[in-house]
Specification:
Blueprint (H helix, E strand, L loop, with lengths): L3 E12 L2 E12 L3 E5 L6 H8 L7 E6 L2 E2 L5 H7 L1 E4 L11 H11 L6 H11 L1 H5 L10 H15 L3 E5 L7 H16 L3 E6 L2 H7 L2 E6 L2 E7 H5 L2 H6 L6
Parallel strand pairs: 3-8, 3-9, 6-7, 7-8
Antiparallel strand pairs: 1-2, 1-4, 4-5, 9-10
Helix pairs in contact: 3-6, 6-7
Bound molecules: adenosine-5'-triphosphate.
Adenosine-5'-triphosphate binds next to strand 2 and helix 1.
């Protein structure tokens, strides 16, 4: 049996009277990639925010490696190996590209030196090497998403939570970003991904869950969901 990294049980969360999540349950095990897909407003971002401790939970629980997320400070979760890349990029806008990467490395330094880790990242995203001494806030949307994923590569989390990695990106950059996520997956990093691009998300993942109005309505292996007409019918025209 694989170790459970993330366990979410019967979790609900609201924005005032709006119930964004209605008793959702999910688990992510070591090395597993799970895609949560759903239409606009289904609650995907709220799920990520609740799991990472940003959106208060009204009932239910979320645990990472047995630690109650609602009682664990974000920096401690990061040290334990849970990295959240929020929607709209998770970069530190007023820091240079290289310093963004250095901070991600410093949270969880590994046997590799920063310079060695940096070289690998630059091989994957040569554009970031060209932009190394620029402020992250001055990068294009695509470059910022590259930087977010590069921070994940250099941080080597046990679990990466990534929200809409394809949002606002050209098909070419989306492809590059998903390629890098596939490398992380193959290196054994567990990934919880929320995405509107169902085809890309499921192709990357082992399992998938469909979120509709704050509830999971369907789940299964990514392979099965990719050919399930109930999933694809809801997202016609969204495959890139
Ligand atoms: P999208 O793909 O458009 O980002 P989503 O699946 O991520 O959608 P959420 O952003 O989690 O969905 O939204 C879930 C519900 O909560 C929606 O009804 C949305 O209008 C509502 N909501 C989200 N953020 C807020 C907020 N800050 N204040 C009030 N309601 C919100």
């Amino acid at each position: 049996m694989k170790k459970v990294l993330l366990s979410v049980q019967n979790l609900s969360a609201s924005y005032g009277p709006i119930r964004a999540l209605r008793g959702v349950t999910l688990e992510v095990t070591e090395g597993e990639t799970l895609a949560v897909v759903g239409a606009n407003g289904a609650g995907k971002t709220s799920l990520m925010r609740a799991i990472s401790g940003i959106l208060p939970i009204s009932s239910g629980t979320a645990n990472f490696l047995g630690h109650d997320i609602s009682k664990t400070p974000t920096h401690q979760l990061a040290r334990l190996g849970m990295l959240h890349v929020p929607e709209g990029r998770g970069t530190l806008q007023t820091l240079m590209v290289k310093d963004n990467l250095r901070l991600a490395w410093e949270i969880r330094p590994c046997a590799e030196s920063f310079e060695q880790a940096l070289e690998k990242v630059y091989l994957r995203f040569p554009r970031l090497k060209e932009r190394a001494d620029q402020w992250a806030g001055n990068l294009s949307g695509g470059e910022q998403q590259m930087l977010s994923v590069a921070r994940a590569i250099i941080n080597r989390p046990q679990l990466l939570l990534i929200d809409e990695p394809s949002m606002g990106l050209s098909p070419l950059i989306t492809k590059e970003v998903f390629h890098a996520l596939a490398e992380l997956r193959d290196a054994g990093v567990a990934i919880l991904l929320v995405e509107q691009n169902v085809k890309r998300a499921l192709e990357l993942s082992h399992r998938g869950m469909v979120l509709t109005h704050g509830e999971f309505t369907l789940q299964g292996s990514a392979q099965d969901l990719l050919v399930d007409p109930r999933v694809m019918a809801s997202y016609m025209g969204q495959a890139a």
